[in-house]
Fold this protein.
Amino acid sequence: MRGLFTALTVALLLGGAGEARAQALVADLSDHLIAVTTGFVGTELLLFGATDGDEGDIVVVVRGPAERVMVRRKERTGGIWVNRHNVAFSGVPSFYHLASSRPLTDITSPRVRSRHQLGLDNVRFGGLRSPRSDVAAFRQALIRNKRRDGLYPNDAGDISQLGNRLFRTAVVFPSNVPTGSYTVTVYLLRKGAVVSAQTTPLVVSKIGIGARVYDFAHRNSALYGIASIFMALMAGWLAGAIFKRA
């Protein structure tokens, strides 16, 4: 099935050769919606595209919705581990995936990587307000936590280039992928410089009964709490009644 899909997309891209030459870069996703349902175990999307045929490198960056993250450091006090210090980061991508046709260090300079935030070391977290001198250590802790959760993949993805024009790569999303609006940006680089870029939207959304329960819990947190307590009491009463009859 994947082979058939790839063949069809390649045919479509070849049919749009004129557009690819005019824009230098054309790219798209196999799907623009990830539906998170009950029992969701993660998924994989295919990103494919074409260039105008001139030699170059491709870099793909997938960023999840920005969030505020509090990073805490525990210290042992009186034999008990307690949170003693913390740093708040804002504008943190909830998900970050990078794929490239070659290692970034072989493609472009640190200045270009910093300008376009290519690679985790170059991602800028906004709104940081902390007088601490060891903020870098808290930043690395944040990245480690994200990697542990599978939201910042450890290894950069590979981009397969078919001939001089076509390319493709797979993006894997874990079961705990955050919901929201994502951006998928494809860069075309030549001689170390970005010559073209294209951004494609992607939505990760809960659907079904799970989505309705999630939405109700966030819109009516007090009622949801009361309902949960009531259901727990009823379950306990029912279990007690069953054991008494037994």
Remarks:
- The chain is about 35% helix and 40% strand.
